[in-house]
Amino acid sequence: MAAIGSSNIGFKLLKKSGWKEGTGLGAQEQGRLEPVETRVKNNKRGIGSKESKPKPKVEDDVEKDPQKPKQDMQSKKRAKLAAKRIRKIQEEEKRLQEKEFEMAFFREFWPDNV
């Protein structure tokens, strides 16, 4: 890995805070001399995983109609999202009912304050 160029914003900030080029960032100037290498990760396997995601098992009906599994997955995703939306709406309604009950309680006992 090559050193950071002097035009880099991180380089400029470090120089401004007292860092000397060619030394580590630690209190006794220990530590890395080069930046940590980064890579773009295009899978959902976790940091450090080099294995690709396992392939789904091929079933007999997949060979007959390759679009069917894709449509099934899309409909399952839609159903899952709809269920999640409904659950959120129900939670919000419950919260509003509890708040209304609380307001009614306060109105009954302390009508001047509400």
TrEMBL record:
Positions of region (Disordered): 21-79
Residue span(s) of domain G-patch: 6-52
Matches recorded under Pfam families: G-patch (PF01585)
Taxonomy, superkingdom: Eukaryota
Residue spans of biased composition, Basic and acidic residues class: 31-40, 48-75
GO-annotated molecular function: nucleic acid binding
UniProt name for this protein: G-patch domain-containing protein
Source organism of this protein record: Dichanthelium oligosanthes
